[in-house]
Amino acid sequence: MSLLYACSFDHYGPAAPTAPVNDIWHIGTDLLLGDGWSFLPTNSAFIASIYGSYSIGAPAWGARAGDYALIVDSADFFVGGSRTRLGTESLRLPFPGASQTTRLIHFAFSVSQLPAFPSMTGFICDFLSSAGTIRGTLMVDASGRLVITDGSPLTTNHGALVAVPVTLLSTAAPVIQAQTWYSIGIEITTSAVLPDTDIKVYLGDIVPANKVLEGFALAFSDTPSQNIDILGFLPASFTGRSPNTGDSTQRAIRDVALFDTLGARNNALPGQIFVSAQEIRQEDAGGGWIANPRQHIGDGVLDAVTHSTGLRCADAAELEIGAGDFTLEAWVRFDVLPAADTSMELIAKWRAADNKRSYRLSYYGSDNTLRWGISTTGVDEIVVKAMPWVPITDRWYHVAVSRAAGQTMMFINGTQLGVPLADANTYYNGTGALGIGARFDSTTTLITTSVFKGWMDEVRLTIGVSRYGGNFTPDSDPFPREGVGDPSWASVVLLLGFDNLSLADESPYGRTMTVGSASSPVAAIQPDDLAQKHNVLNERPSIDDTYIEAPQEYAEGIFTFDALPINGETMTIGSKTYRWVDALALANDIKIGVDIPECIDNAIAAVNAGAGEGTKYGNGTVANSDALALVFQSPQFSLRALAVGAVGNSVATTDTMLDGFFMAATLTGGADIPADSLFAMERLPIDVTGVLAIQVTNRHYKTDAGAALMRVDLAGPGGAEIAGAAQQPDLSPAWAHQIFETDPDTGGGITPSTIIGGRLRFKRTT
Amino acid sequence: MTSISVFVATAQAVHRGAQGSSLRLAQGVAQAVHRGAQGSTLLVPQSTAQVITGQIPRGIRVAYSTAQLVRRGETGAVPREAFSAVQVIYTTGAPAAARQRAWTFDLDGHTFYVLDIGERGSLLFDISTKQWTKFETTGYGGHWNFKNGFQWRDGGKVLGGASTGADVFALNPESFLDEGWRPVVYTVMGVLPSTGVDQHRQYALRVLGSTGLTADGEAPVLWMQFSDDHGASWSTPRSVALKQDARQRVEFRSLGAFAAPGRLFRIYDEGGIKYIATVEAEIGGENVRFPA
Questions:
Q1: Contacts with B85 from chain A: Cβ below 8 Å
Q2: How large is the ipTM?
Q3: pTM
Q4: Is residue B24 pLDDT above 60, yes or no?
Q5: Which of A635, A647, A670 lies closest to A559, judged by CA?
C-alpha cells in the first residue's frame, strides 16, 4: 500500500453552503465527514464572528477535469479584539494509518483572485500535528508566490496585524495565477525529536524545473509530536475585518491524494495527477445482491419523508365501511419506525377530537404492532387486530386489511399475519376526513404527532368486497383502473398511484385530495431508480435509503392451535418428536395446558428446554437441535431454524394433531448469502494516459446488530482477482475505502485495461 | 360430533353438520362450501380457491402466517451498500518525446509517410493526395501514441509501440476505440452560406445517421458547435447523449440567428454514431439541406 487516500469531491455531488451553526461552517449535510475528513472549519475560540462559506461545487472557472471542488468563498473572521489563528479553522484531513515522518501529498489548487491582505489571506493548507497544532502553513501571497511559514501565532487586533508567523520559504518568482488550476505535490519529512522539517514543493510533473520550493531543516513549530499527521485545507482567512472589507476570494481544491513511501508502487511524489469518480454499472448476470430502490410501481411514489404531513380527502358516504366486507391495502416503505411511545397512522378516518372515530390502520412503536382499530360509537376504540410486526426500514411492504363475512384478516406481502378474527362490528359513520399517512381532527387539522414517515404507493380502499381470503401474491403492477381488469372496480372508493407526479384519486369517484400542510406538503416524486441495481448506487449526493443488500435468512415456521391437543398426539420438529400428554412421563412429553396460551407456553419451553422441566415438559428433554421456538401471538407460536440459510428449509415440521397444524411440512424461507454481484466500471476520461490506482469509495451500513461482513474485490479482465479487505458495516451509514494498486492478472500496475475489462465484486462473507 | 377429513380435494366439499363438527381440508384446490352451526370448524391449511360460509364458524384457519415478518434482532443483520464510486487516480499527457525514425505504411489505399518529430507530434504525408496531416491520440498532448511504426505486410497489419509501457498497437480504421477503450473523436464540418445582410433565424439542426450504432454500452455523446465568423470563435458546445436506439432523434434547437458570412458547424462525437448521412438545418421556417 502506497496510496493512502484519494478524494475527487465529485463523488459527494454538489453541496451548497450551509449557514454556520455554533460557529462551525457547514457544507450541505456535511456528508463528507467520515470519508477521511474529520472536522469542519470551526471558530473554536468563540471570540470572533465568522462569515463566508464552504461548499462543494464548480468554480466559475471550472473544476479542473472533474465536476466539483471544495470551495471556500470569502470565509473570514471578524475579530473585535486580539485573537490568534488556530489549527481548527480549516477542513481537516488526517493521514490514514500510523504516524510517519515522511508525507507525500498531492492536491490541485486554484484561487479566484490573488489575495489582497498579506499574511492574513491566501492560506492553502496548514500542516498540523496529531494534536491539531499548526506546525507550518502553505499559502499564496498577493504577488502569486508560494510561501511556507511556521506555526507561530498570527494575531490580529481590530483588523491590525499584531504578530505574524515566520516566513521559512518563498518562491523566487510568482508561480500562481488567478483562476488557474495547479497540481501541487509536496514531500515533507519531519524529525522524530526536533522541529526541523524538510520540504519540497512541485507544481506539476516531478521535474527539476517544477520544483518551486525546497528547504531543509526548516524551523517548523515545535510540538510534542513533530510528525505532520493532519492536513488543514483551506483555512479561513484572518483579516479581522467586517464582511464587506475582508477577504473576498474563492479558493478551491480537488484531486487530493495522500501517499506513503512504504509500498512497491506509488511510493514517490506522483506529479500531475487527477482523481475522477467513476460510476459503476451492474453486469447483465446481475448477481444476488438485491436492490431496494425508492421507485416501486409505476413512475411515482408518495414522499412522506421530506415532509411528513399526510394527505386527506373529505368524508363521503362511500368511505363508510359499516358492517360489510372491505379491503384496505397499500404499499408502504418506512423510513423510520415510531418511537416507543408514539404511533404512525398509515390510513385513518379517525377524528378523535370530537368523537368521530371510524377506522384506522396504524403502526405502534410501543409494542411494535400493526393495528387495525375501529370504533362503533365514534368514542371508544376497538382494536380488532394488533399483530407483532417489525418492518425493516427502507423496504417496500404490501400491507392489507380485509374483512370477509365478519372475519378480519391482516396481510403483509400477501401472507396472513396471525389468524382471522371475528369482527362483526358496524364501523362508526363519522364525518372525519380520510387521511393517508396521517389522521386529521376536525376536517382539516393535521395531528402531527402520529404522521407516517416513509413512502407509499398504490393505496386502494375497496368497500363491499373482501379481495383476500387467504394468502396471495401482491400484484407488482398497478391496480386496474377500470372495470375490465377489476370486477370490483365499482367498489373501489379510493385509489392513489402517485404516478406522473400526481396526488389525484384515480377511483371512479375521483376524490379531491388535499395535502395536510400547504406550506410543507407531502409530494408525489419520481425517483427513477428502479431499472438497475447500479441506479441506487450512483446517486450523488448518496441516498442511504436506497441500496443493494445481501440478506441471509433463517428458515421459519408457524404452528397454529385450533383447540387443545389430545392426549397422545404428536408434533415433530426436526429430528425430535414431542408428545402431548395429560401427565408427564417421558422426555419430550409436553403437558397439555388448560388453554391454548398455556399449551403454547409449554411447547416453547419444551423445544427450547427452558424453565419448566418436569412441570411443563418431561424430565430429560434437551433443547431441540434444529429449531428455536419463539413467542408469536396466541393461538400461534413460531419456529426458527438454528442454522441460518437454506439448510433450515429441511427441518421437518409435521404433526398428528386434529386441532393444530404447522404451516408447512418443513420450515421455509431459509436463504443463503446471495451470490456475489459484479459491476463494471464507467469508461475512463478520454484523456487518461496512465492509472496509478483505484479507490473504491462506498457507503454502507447494516440493518441490525450481528455479523455482517462484506468486501469489495477487483477482478481483472483475465479473471484473476484481488480480494479486498473485510469491511464491517455499522448500524449507521458510513464511508469505506478499498484501494487497489495492482492488476490482478499481471501483478503489475493498474492500467486503463484493468478498469475497462475489470469488474468490482461485491461479496458478503459473513 | 362428526368429523370429515379431506386430504386432497379435487372438486368441492359440501359439509352440513351438527354443532361441534369439523371439516378439514389438507389441500383444497376448488371451493369448500360449509354450512354449520356456530362452533364448527373449517380448516384449510393451503387454500387455492375460496371459502364460502353460511354462518360464522368458530374459526377459519388459513395458515402461512410467517415469522419472517416479525423477526428482527441480532441474527438479522443485513449489509447494505448505499453508494459506490470508483475513484481513479490517473495521469494525462505523455513523457517528453524524442524524435523517432521516419516510417511509412499503407492504409485504405493510401500511402502515408510518418515524421515523428518529438515535441511537435507526428506529421503524416499522404502520398496519394499530397496532403499533410497530423495524427494524435487524445490525452497525449498532441502526440500520437503509436511509436516506431512498422508495416507487417505478411500479417496485413500496421504495428506501433506505446509511448509508455509495453503495449503494441495495430492500426484499425474501423474501430471506434483507441487502445481498446478510448473513444475516437470524429469531426465533421459544414457551412450554411449567407451573403446578405438579412438575419436568418435557425430553429434547429438535425443529424441523420446511424443512431443506435455506438461504440459500446457507455453513454456516448455527440457535440455541436457553430461559428458565425469563419471559425474565429465558436459557440459553447451543445451535446446530445446518444442511446443505443436506432430511432433516437438527434436535434439541436434554438440556435439563434446569423447573417453573412454564414454559419459554420462543427459536429464531433465521443464513442458516437458510426456515420452521418445528412444534416438538416431548419432556417426561417424553411428546410435547407446540405451535405454533411
A1: 10-11, 277-280, 538, 540, 696-698
A2: 0.89
A3: 0.84
A4: no
A5: A635
